[in-house]
Amino acid sequence: MKKILVTGGCGYIGSHTIVDLVENGYEVICADNNSRSNENILLGVEKITGKKIKNYKIDLCVLDDTYAIFQENPDIIGIIHFAAYKSVGESVEKPLMYYDNNLNSLFNILKCVAAFKIPHFVFSSSCTVYGNPDKIPVTEETPQKPAASPYGATKQMGEQIIQDAFKELSSKAILLRYFNPVGAHPSILIGELPLGRPANLVPAITQTAIGKLPTMQVYGTDYDTRDGSCLRDYIHVVDIAHAHTLALNFLVDNKTEQACTVFNLGTGDGCTVLEAIKAFEQVSGIALNYEIGPRRAGDVVAIYANNEKAKSQLLWKPQYSLLQMMETAWKWELKIKAEEQIFEAQNPDLN
Ligand code: WQD
Questions:
Q1: What percentage of residues in the chain have a pLDDT greater than 70?
Q2: What is the pTM of this model?
Q3: Of 114, 138, 230, 312, which one's alpha carbon is 20 to 30 angstroms from that of 205?
């Protein structure tokens, strides 16, 4: 079996990617210190795949502990590196914490790629590297603007570090630039678990709809877009996950001579905030309680992907529609609420 190390595998995209890798014949181990995730998500992965996933609960910023994973697993042939802090807002408040964590963990992983000659490497990047593009849709060659946040800067720097490092290595790398991952696995056994008040749009919508949040704000409707609200490319997390399996296959099957290849992962369709809310209301039958608020600092006005390169070279084809993204996100929120109610009923004294 081809063994893959998934760092940050207890996270939202990481856990969905582990499911897809296992379903496509890979053996997977995970490294996640659960500082921003819950190891129980691997129970959901196990229920879906029938496979128990071993998690090394270590801090990837500690080189010795990172090294030990590879000493214990000399048969690792590939790494998918998700582990990083990813909140745009938090990165503005705590830039040094973001640079320290996201870059030092990457340095250590790359040192292990070199030391253990790991042939295949896939990096979790983001459309945030484009900043506010002059022209949309963006291709992989669209020039990068200054990042709008330290989080975005760690992705831009990470890509540059990888591109330079892999010129010297016999290994090969792929950078996957996600647009806006949303939704949950159709089994509704795994999904997004935002910590605290969600910064991202779709969990804010579902938590408002279920009553966890009294209301939510649309951050500005005075932008130069078709309805005044910001435009994004929302993409189902399962489509994103499958692209990782295809990217690994692309490297394992030696499909490229390039040391480092970049792919956009978006549907290729733009969707505004107000359109996303309408899609949610359509699938849930709920009139969402939202207000129009001021713009959010650092927001990109409009961006969506030209995804032709991933479709032609990775043979990737996004399957999920916007309505299905909203439907699975809503079903996941309902599942969380039902589980919370069962817990409260079984532990009345805790309430
Ligand atoms: C989308 C739109 C908001 C919440 C960031 C990162 C990206 C990725 C996803 C990590 C914007 C609006 C949001 C709300 C709102 N991160 N919004 N009310 O900022 O496009 O992307 O998160 O992988 O790398 O850059 O995503 O979901 O925060 O915002 O109106 O309560 O929804 O203003 O226009 P974003 P988002």
A1: 100
A2: 0.97
A3: 138
CB 116 within 8 Å of CB 168? no
pLDDT tens digits, 177-222 = 999 999 999 999 999 999 889 999 999 999 999 999 999 999 999 9
Shortest-distance Cα residue to atom 34 of ligand 1: 230
Q: Which pLDDT score, from 0 to 100, does residue 351 have? A: 66
Homologous superfamily of the 2-340 domain (CATH): NAD(P)-binding Rossmann-like Domain (3.40.50.720)
102 CB under 6 A from ligand 1?
no
Q: Looking at ligand 1, which residue's alpha carbon is closest to its atom 32?
A: 201
Q: How far is CA 71 from CA 68, 111, 112, 115, in A?
A: 5, 13, 10, 10
Question: Which atom of ligand 1 approaches the CA of 298 most closely?
Answer: 19
Question: Looking at residues 170-179, what average pLDDT do you find?
Answer: 97
Query: For the chain, what's the residue count?
Result: 351
Residue ranges per structural domain of the chain: 2-340
CA of 200 relative to ligand 1 center, distance in Å:
5
243 ligand 1 Cβ < 6 A: no
How many CB atoms within 10 Å of residue 89?
Answer: 13
Residue nearest to atom 30 of ligand 1 (CA): 218
CB distance 180 to ligand 1 below 6 Å: yes
Ligand 1 center from residue 199 Cα (angstroms): 7
pLDDT at 1: 80
- Residues paired with 7 in a beta bridge: 31, 81
Which two structure tokens, joined as six digits, stand for 211?
Answer: 């009553």
Q: How far is CA 141 from CA 246, 302, 332, 334, in A?
A: 21, 17, 36, 40
Atom of ligand 1 nearest to the CA of 296: 33
Q: How confident is the model at residue 148 (pLDDT cuts 50, 70, 90)?
A: confident
Rounded Cα distance between 220 and 205, Å, is 16
Pairing state of beta strands 271-272 and 231-232?
antiparallel
**Does the CB atom of residue 299 touch ligand 1 within 6 A?**
yes
- The atom number, within ligand 1, closest to the CA of 155 reads 24
The helix/strand/coil state of 248 is helix
pLDDT tens profile 81-93: 999 999 888 899 9
